[in-house]
Amino acid sequence: MFTALFGSVEQGIIYAIMALGVYLTFRVLDFPDLTVDGSFVTGAATAAMMIALGYHPIIATVLAIVAGFIAGCMTGLLHTKGKINPLLSGILMMIALYSINLRIMGLSDENAKVKPNIPLMNDDSIFTQFQGFWGNLGIDDALINFFKNTLGFQNAPSTWGTILVVLILTLIIKFIVDWFLKTEVGLAIRATGDNKRMIRSFSANTDGLIVLGLGISNALVAFSGALIAQYSKFADANMGIGMIVIGLASVIIGEAIFGTKTIFRTTMAVVAGAIIYRIIYAVALRIDWLDTSDMKLITAIIVVLALVIPQLVDKRREKIRKEKRRTERLTQQREVTQTQGGNHLA
Amino acid sequence: MLKLEGINKIFNEATPDEKIALDNINLHLAPGDFVTIIGSNGAGKSTMMNMISGALTPDFGAVTIEGREVTRLPEYKRSQYIGRVFQDPMAGTAPSMTIEENLAIAYSRNAKRGLRKGVSRGRRDFFKSSLEKLGLGLENRFNAKVGMLSGGERQALSLLMATFTKPSILLLDEHTAALDPSRAELITRLTKQLVEEGNLTTLMVTHNMQQAIDLGNRLIMMDKGQIILTIDDEKKPTLTIPDLMSEFEKIRGEKMNSDRALLGS
After folding, report:
1. Same domain, A202 and A344
2. Does any domain span residue A291?
3. Cβ–Cβ of B108/A188 closer than 8 Å?
4. Does residue A21 form part of some domain?
5. Do A328 and A180 fall within a single domain?
6. Cβ-defined contact of B118 to A201 (cutoff 8 Å)
7. CB contact under 8 A, A184 and B97
């Protein structure tokens, strides 16, 4: 169980980068961007294709990020220049990317135009690269000994290198997002999601900011996809299905648990939400009568609950507050009439 | 400073709802002019403001700001020169952002936005001293989200944000109409103070005749898309509401029918 959860946390940390991207569009820009299902695969496909062709994993990952950025910008252009509804822009881009992703993967094979997947079983990845360095340090052996001998676990995670790499990468991304949202451009993007009319009256080009915001968001999503492909040693045309809902679930779970007081806290909440989602996922899979394919239904239910419950809580709080105010007013009035009555008698 | 030449605008052209919103409008503001605009509903006041700000483009005619023709310049480019306060107190600020972040957005109006920190230490001092001028204690609530402020406070903040970068033109579109009387008075006082301090060229639309008479050095009256009356520097100080009413009757040959304008909502 521990090892399974450990794997979920590793994956959760990688998916957190995707969730940060979703946070940028859904929350900051107030733009429900469905490109994510496609751009996640674009990232995975680009990285896998490059690695399969023998390029360095870091170059492959950077190119994946660029591909995601371009995809996001395209959605932004469809919406701002083509005046297409935000949801539809995202859906159009998502379905266009499905074909494009098959073509991207096809580039890895001279004999095929398109390919539905690329296995990376024996290829290098960011993780194997780091493992080479990390393994020499001997920390893994020490930790495995600690878990097996001191804590008495039967199984221990075979390496802590992976979780360290992904944790560092995700935290770097989180801090970059925090910093970016406080810059002049970042403030303008936030204001675009908050009050378009206002930010236009302060000489900001909202169209440009929407395109940029979508580009950055999908760059993060593609980055996450590239890492997942390298982590699971596999890229597949269908690996992005439902990704947007998973991202949204992460954002909502995180926000509900940790709050949104400041940006620093909100992005932390999003990262934590992504990890918690993966843990829920792992636990749900251990329940006998559930099947892996039920997970999409469960995800949908989680999102619905996370959206509905806060409303109910707010309503209830409002009711309690109103009743309290009413009793306060009533007692006040009683006191006033009593003192007035006293004066009258005197 | 600002020139409108032969501005025409027709809404819903060639349909039964056709409406001539602006009919050959000519207006010229010298630097430092403070012009108040009155007129009944549908007179074209707001449409004229939108022509200047770039939210609408005229069918014919030209808009010139500081000698530069801006008729076709999109709103976001033009707003470099134009400060604006809307009637709706919610419209001029970003509610989920803090007071200082809102000020930072307004502060970057003139410059290209880059990856500099929006709220730097030097700017914070400037924001603080600007907020102190409002006398509302907002300088102590720097990190409060603007959505938590009252309508009056938000409108005062909008006014500050529109003026503290010294725009070439300040547009005030019934910016006190949605406030209760005491708050409206506060905003009127702040308007006067901020416009005088910055010597800003200002256009203010109002429904309140008394306010139109009290503020500014010139007054224009609009009706049915035309400017029907102009009162300039010399006559303005002695102007009264009955004067305005009789002028209107003389020009239009009918009684002014807007109770709202008379009572000054």
Report:
1. no
2. no
3. yes
4. yes
5. no
6. no
7. no
Q: In what side-by-side order are the strands of the sheet with B68-69?
A: B19-29, B2-11, B60-65, B68-69
pLDDT tens, residue by residue, B23-40: 999 999 999 999 999 988
Residues A138, A172: one domain?
yes
Q: Does A230 lie in the same domain as A145?
A: yes
The pLDDT tens digits for B109-138 are: 888 898 899 898 889 999 999 999 888 999
Query: Looking at beta carbons, which residues of chain B come within 8 Å of A185?
Result: 113-115
For residues A253 and A346, membership in a common domain is answered with no
CA–CA separation, B63 vs B25, rounded Å? 11
Structural domain total, chain A: 2
Q: Which residues of B touch A180 (CB under 8 A)?
A: 115
ipTM computed for the complex? 0.88
CB within 8 Å: B75 and A200 = yes
* Contact by Cβ (8 Å): A170, A224: no
Give me the half-sphere count of Cα atoms (radius 13 Å) on the Cβ side of residue A316: 6
- The reply to whether residue B115 touches residue A190, judged by beta carbons under 8 angstroms, is no
pTM above 0.90, yes or no: no
CATH of the domain at A77: 1.10.3470
Q: Which residue of A has its CA nearest to B104?
A: A184
Q: What integer is the mean pLDDT of A4-15?
A: 92
Strands B2-11, B218-223: pairing kind: unpaired
Chain A contact probe: residue of B100, B113, B142 with most A CBs at under 10 A: B113
Beta strands (DSSP E) in B68-200 are 68-69, 82-85, 169-173
Domain shared by A313 and A281, yes or no? no
CA torsion, points B84, B89, B91, B93, in degrees to nearest 10? 80
> CB distance from B92 to chain A under 8 Å?
yes
A210 interface with B at CB cutoff 8 Å: no
CA B262 – CA A307 distance, rounded (Å): 49
Cα nearest neighbour of B162 on chain A: A202
Q: Which domain holds residue A275?
A: 2-286
Q: Which of A203, A205, A216 to mutate to test the interface with B (most CBs of B within 10 A)?
A: A203
Q: Does some domain include residue A106?
A: yes
Other beta carbons less than 10 A from residue A189's beta carbon: 26
pLDDT at B260 over 70: no
Residue in chain A nearest B143 by alpha carbon: A262
Residues A278 and A344 in one domain: no
Residues A133 and A16 in one domain: yes
